[in-house]
Design brief:
The chain is of the alpha/beta class. The chain contains 3 helices and 4 strands.
Length: about 80
């Protein structure tokens, strides 16, 4: 399991560098448009075995857009807990 506060748009590198089963952290995508570039990021992340728990700076709209392309993407809000 890897926990990152905010990956500062480096979540693709994080997923590639660490062969984690679970990655928790913000993707820093909140200001990105809902377009093919963001879809490409989702497709790339979906190639990894990790389950992603995102929060912080991903953006709710960006999360919802990516969720349509990623089965193993979950959103964490303040106060929520997960059991791994």
């Amino acid at each position: 399991m890897l926990v990152s506060g905010c990956s500062h748009k480096g979540v693709l590198n994080v997923a590639q560098w660490f062969d984690a089963d679970v990655i928790i952290g913000g993707f820093h995508f909140s200001k990105l448009p809902l377009d093919e570039k963001l879809a490409g990021y989702a497709d790339e992340l979906n190639k990894h075995k990790a389950t992603f728990y995102t929060c912080h700076c991903t953006g709710v709209e960006q999360y919802e857009f990516m969720k349509t392309r990623m089965e193993r993407l979950c959103y964490l809000s303040a106060g929520q807990t997960i059991e791994i």
